[in-house]
Design a protein that fits this description.
- The protein is an alpha+beta fold.
- It is about 45% helix and about 10% strand.
- The protein has a two-stranded antiparallel sheet. Strands 2-3 form a two-stranded antiparallel ribbon.
- A hairpin with a 3-residue loop joins strand 2 and strand 3.
- It is globular and about 45 Å long.
- It starts with a strand and ends in a 7-residue tail after the last strand.
């Protein structure tokens, strides 16, 4: 089966006043202020985004968190998505969460 529909690259996340965007766009664009969708979709998306952020960088303490900042965390998330790009296909060799 061929790899197709990568969650990192394909627009699928609803963002208010923007439309659908990819995971890469979510972490690369700080102007996005609110997820779209219904409350259940927002909760599920937030859990996914938090899981990616935590996997990308888990600061040891408050000082490390403050030093990292939002921009630093976003950059780490983008690095994480690039590193594990092949694991974010919905279909294919190693389907996402299946």
């Amino acid at each position: 089966m061929e790899n197709r529909f990568n969650l990192v690259d394909e627009p699928w996340i609803p963002v208010a006043d923007v439309g659908r965007v990819s995971l890469r766009q979510v972490f690369a664009n700080p102007s996005y202020r609110s997820l779209g969708g219904n409350p259940v979709q927002k909760i599920a998306l937030m859990k996914l985004l938090l899981a990616i952020a935590q996997a990308a960088q888990t600061p040891a303490d408050k000082l490390e968190w403050q030093a990292l900042g939002a921009e630093g965390l976003a950059l780490r998330c983008l690095d994480y998505l690039q590193q594990w790009h092949e694991r974010f296909y919905l279909y294919g060799e190693q389907p996402f969460l299946q």
